[in-house]
Amino acid sequence: MCYSLDDTIVAVATPPGVGALGIVRLSGNGAFKIASKVLQKPSGGFYSVGSLPSHTVHYAFLVDPVGGERIDEVLFALFKAPKSYTSQDMVEVTCHGGPVVLERALEAFVVAGARLARPGEFTLRAFLLGRLDLAQAEAVADLIESASEEGRRAALAQLEGGLSRKMGELAQALREVLVELEAAIDFPDEGVELGNHLAERVDGVVREIEGLMATYREGKLCREGVRVAIVGLPNVGKSSLFNALVGEDRAIVTSQPGTTRDVVEAQVALGGVLFRFMDTAGFRESGDEAEGEGVKRARKCMEEGDLVLVVLDRSRPLQEGDRVLVREVGGRGVVVVNKIDLPGAWSQEDLGRVMVGRPTFHVSAKRGDGLESLKKALIEMVGRGRRREGEIPLVTNVRHYQALIGAKEALLRSLKAWQEGLSAEFVAADVKGALEALGEITGETTPEDVLDAIFSRFCIGK
Ligand SMILES: Nc1nc2c(ncn2[C@@H]2O[C@H](COP(=O)(O)OP(=O)(O)O)[C@@H](O)[C@H]2O)c(=O)[nH]1
Ligand SMILES: [Mg+2]
Question: CA-to-CA distance for 428 and 423, rounded, in angstroms?
Answer without folding.
Answer: 9
